[in-house]
Amino acid sequence: MAQRNCLSSVNSTFPNAGNETIVDNKTTTTMGALILSLVFLLGFPGNLFIIWSILARARKHSVTTLLILNLAIADGSLMALTPFFIVYLVMKKWVFGKVMCKILFYLCLANMYASIQLIMLMSVYRLVAVLWPQRISVITGRRTVMRVLAVVWVLVMVASIPALIFREARCKGPISVCDSFHDKDSDVVLQYTLELVLGFLIPYGVIVVSYICILRRIRRTKFNRRIRSEKLILAIVLTFCLFWLPYHVINMVQVTWALYPHGPVKDKLGDIWYKSRAVTSSIAFISSCANPVLYFFAGKSYIRREGLAFMARLFEGAGIDSGTRKSRQNSQNSRDKDKDAGSVMLKDKEPDSVTNSSSNAKPVKNGK
């Protein structure tokens, strides 16, 4: 029925109906469908296991654990959407209607923003914990953390509104496609520049600066505590960058295409982003299934001892606030030991003073 409607309105609804769509290329759609299928099989149960491990098995919910929980929720939600896009790529047409076209792509964009913002918060939290450990207690309160997370999710939902505005299900040729449609080139520039700035440049700028400062402090002070958890979060950062970079590169290509004057170069740029959009978008989904794999390898030493609770123990060990409390406790213990040692020295000196005073008193007694 949808295909018949598209056939009857080819010329009226979409004037340049002969143009290629993002699902016309058989090679890219097949690759995209295969990637998304593997991503769903690994990522959906993997992120559900992370959520269950934290909620049911973790004894303490540190700041790092809460951030990882929210990251797993964002990634798991994204994984739950993949079957719709697999069907889209396999059938090479959109069959879920106009409303679902907007909602699904809005949720995709929101979860992309949420993932990178949460990873940025992890990096900033590590920075504060390493550079200003005496102030970490100010931001480790549960109420403060929950408020910050609520603000992040609200900002993410607001930043994703362009997906509701520009994403539409329309007839393009004989089929229905769910794509970003723009009346003006300025709309293309606005949408994809916003994604590039908010979803990549700003958060990764903060992340890179944070880790440069952290590594400089570690090198300067030979601070070797919690290096394992630092490596885990650094692996999460690099993995996200690796799989989302192609998507943002294609965004830049499309923005350049929109700004470029008509000619062979513009046609070539348009050909590149049309043929690459399906594959790069599918590759971006891999980042959401990669984190459970990273956690598994990071926590495999716990498996034999902890069983299904191994991931909960891993997250508890990665919590920097527990390590900070231990360091403060150790420093307090060392100060107590110094006090005890000082009191012992005083006690040792007291008999000598008594002996000296008695020895000094004896001649007086004898003098009497």
UniProtKB/TrEMBL annotation:
The keyword Phosphoprotein applies. It is found in: Cell membrane. Its main location: membrane. GO terms for biological process: inflammatory response; phospholipase C-activating G protein-coupled receptor signaling pathway; positive regulation of cytosolic calcium ion concentration; positive regulation of macrophage migration. Pfam families: 7tm_1. GO terms for molecular function: complement receptor activity; leukotriene receptor activity. SUPFAM superfamilies: Family A G protein-coupled receptor-like. Residues 323-368 are annotated as: Disordered. The chain crosses the membrane at residues 33-55, 67-91, 103-132, 144-166, 189-212, 232-259, 279-298. GO terms for cellular component: cell surface; plasma membrane. Belongs to the chemokine-like receptor (CMKLR) family. This is G-protein coupled receptors family 1 profile domain-containing protein.
